[in-house]
Design goal:
The protein has 166 residues and is an alpha+beta fold. It contains five helices and six strands, in the order αβααααβββββ. The strands form two sheets. Strands 1-2-3-4 form a four-stranded antiparallel beta sheet. Strands 5-6 form a two-stranded antiparallel ribbon. A hairpin with a 5-residue loop joins strand 5 and strand 6. The longest helix has 21 residues. The two termini are 38 Å apart.
Length: 166
Amino acid sequence: MSQSQEKRAPKGSHGHDDFAAEPIRGLPEALPEGERILWQGEPTWRQLAVNVFHVRALAIYFAVLMIWRASTAAGDGVGAALGAGLAPAPFLLGSVVVLCVLATLIARTTVYTVTNKRLVMRFGLALTKAINIPFRLVTSADMRPRAGGHGDIAIHLDPSARIGYI
């Protein structure tokens, strides 16, 4: 197996590699002569779940809701309080599972590549899109560090640069 094949995204559940057409993982075409990859990475599903889909905030919301429901039903007995408090639990579990599955799917299909000439972002669940941003269009980049060595990077483009988003 060649080195570029080893770096590709894992095969799907049917043994089919959805990104087999990529000559280099995360890139829609081979690099031109003189261009080289400086860094390549992808988001982790846990970071997406916590920082993008806010599963912790959702869990806290449901915990407060469950405590409030149990406390308002406490006058009717322990059984009623327990029943009222646990009633939202399936919704909490279902919401967290759906968001974690979505975060996992997004993490598996997203690759960021920095070359010596551009930034390439490949993403998309149903429809895969790759955006190439030449460094000449980038005016600045900011990073917001997060726990565990992770972080969010904001790329600021020249106002004349337009990226289609529809």
